[in-house]
Write a structure and sequence with these properties.
Two copies of one chain form a homodimer. Chain A is built from twelve helices and eight strands. With 325 residues, chain A is an alpha/beta fold. In chain A, strand 4, helix 5 and strand 5 form a beta-alpha-beta unit. The longest helix of chain A is centred in the first third of the chain and has 21 residues. Chain A is globular. The interface between A and B is large, with 51 and 51 residues.
């Protein structure tokens, strides 16, 4: 059994056409574009499903394509309409392929606006569309100005309250980035690193003991710099950093074997969930293995140091427990 | 033989008093505070030298303490006076302990000002004070506003020209950070990650084939995310990412054994230089080993996969070649 907790929806061209128009006319005038037909959604899903089947994935959790979430595009109604539309596509895809896909909600976060603007859409996704998680972007400014407070700040509490009430896990995953110094793919890694440290230095897990957080891309930079933060925690009289890290979960969406080995050894299999982002950045053939970079199952199966229990934890058990898949 | 390329000057209290006054009165009025006596410098160096001797380090390269470089503090003459003062202390320490220390220049970078403001001080440090390298901060804004262009941008070219002319390596190392989301220690890691990618995506190494760059803290996040950037490079028709990475050098200033193992396996010993930052964040006892986190020699010596040649590369040969120590 393989559950891939980190996937994104594949969209037919009309979705991109709608997005381009929304950005261009700034949602004014706006009229509901309707939704693509089931046939079109199925067509767009074809390659996606073939990849997952080839990789042996049984279930994938899908959310909006993060780099296209547009959280910093003004005015707010652009992102409002767009995220609602994409969540509908996700629901449609899950309805058409109920064995394969589960929905994870995008949130209409808008620049430095309070995330209370997301509560209604999150509730709709979970209660009406049957979604089992949500994606949270720690930098809805997308690098376009001073960032909002870190995830440890009370700025986020109204959203955490709703998330805990609905009992869905959060996948930390930033969106695009306007800084010429940072591609979106690099921005993901940096924002995850900031999110991990900010959450662990905060009171969030005391105030929300049932908040379930999964950090994308194997925790950004942090598992690679454990020693630095272990030393920092001792210096500052904090709880041992390895114990702090156990408050979080991490996906395996990291495309090098040495790195996944490090992740499992450092944070342990109870904290790791299989995730590939397939199809995504890693869907390109690695000349070294002749498989795509995001075909992570053989990589994980090749590790002698993992017990069968570790493997089950990573491949499906932690996902079943966390997401109630 | 052990050469530690990543150390910082230990300062007597009067240096901190001077700094506090400079920040407080914004260098107005300013009068030259003189320099601490040789006795005071020697006294401040005592603990530092004892640590290095205990660790078996023969030579350490020392630069200003990065978190105290104040590159974003207004007005510019604050940083101008401060960096010049600290470089003098470094020179003084090197003169007093010529076997142990070599100087690495801090630069009076100022917010988004062109780095041409640094040329004179760099030249003074190399030609008059005998320094053998310099530290470069990719974010002299210290998070206080939109960042300057990435290190791949022509913004930096006047500085690169001078660096190549003087033939000294550059250690990439950011300073403090005003963002409440990022401690300076986390900011280091993020800025190094940005620097690596920005340099590799640029024409800098075509335009300055003799520019020698060492990235602190084992390359930030990048060696842990090699697969991601390998895939990205293939997608974008670039040179293989592993080859791109060979344009850079990386220090070993990473305090976990799994991470250093990954670094050596991924980038190879010809690209790695021993560096500890001792005394610094890692100078605290690791309860797991009963040694300080920054005592990295036994960690590196414990790896069976390194050949004697690899070890020599890491411990001193690469440093000798790059810095002409």
């Amino acid at each position: 059994m393989i559950i891939d907790i980190h996937g994104h929806v594949s969209m037919p061209d009309e979705a991109w056409v709608y997005q381009a128009n929304l950005v261009s006319n700034r949602a004014r005038p706006w009229k509901d574009p309707g939704r693509p037909s089931d046939e079109r959604i199925a067509e767009a899903a074809k390659g996606h499903i073939a990849l997952l089947q080839k990789a042996g994935t049984d279930i994938q959790l899908i959310s909006p394509r993060p780099f296209a979430m547009m959280h910093s595009i003004r005015p707010e109604k652009v992102v409002h309409h767009w995220i609602r539309y994409v969540n509908d596509l996700i629901a449609q895809k899950c309805r058409l392929f109920p064995e394969m896909f589960r929905g994870v909600a995008g949130l209409p976060q808008f620049r430095d606006t309070s995330p209370t603007n997301c509560l209604e859409e999150l509730e709709r996704c979970v209660k009406e569309l049957g979604f089992i998680g949500c994606v949270l972007n720690p930098d809805p400014m997308e690098g376009d100005g001073p960032p909002v407070p870190g995830l440890g700040d009370e700025f986020w509490y109204p959203l955490y309250e709703k998330i805990v009430e609905l009992d869905v896990p959060v996948l930390i995953h930033s969106a695009s980035c306007v800084s010429p110094r940072e591609s979106y793919t690099l921005h993901f890694i940096l924002e995850e690193s900031i999110a991990v440290i900010d959450l662990l230095e905060s009171r969030v897990f005391e105030d929300f003991p049932n908040l379930k957080i999964v950090v994308s891309h194997s925790g950004g930079a942090i598992p690679y710099h454990m020693g630095r933060f272990r030393a920092w925690a001792i210096r500052n009289g904090e709880q041992p950093f390895d114990e702090q890290m156990r408050r979080l979960h991490f996906d395996t969406c990291n495309y090098s074997s040495e790195a996944l080995e490090l992740l499992f050894k450092v944070v342990g299999s109870p904290s790791c969930l299989f995730g590939t982002e397939m199809p995504g950045t890693g869907t390109v053939v690695d000349p070294g293995t002749a498989r795509t970079f995001d075909d992570l199952r053989p990589v994980i199966e090749s590790y002698d140091f993992l017990t069968p229990e570790d493997r089950d934890n990573i491949f499906f058990k932690n996902a079943q427990e966390l997401y109630r898949v």
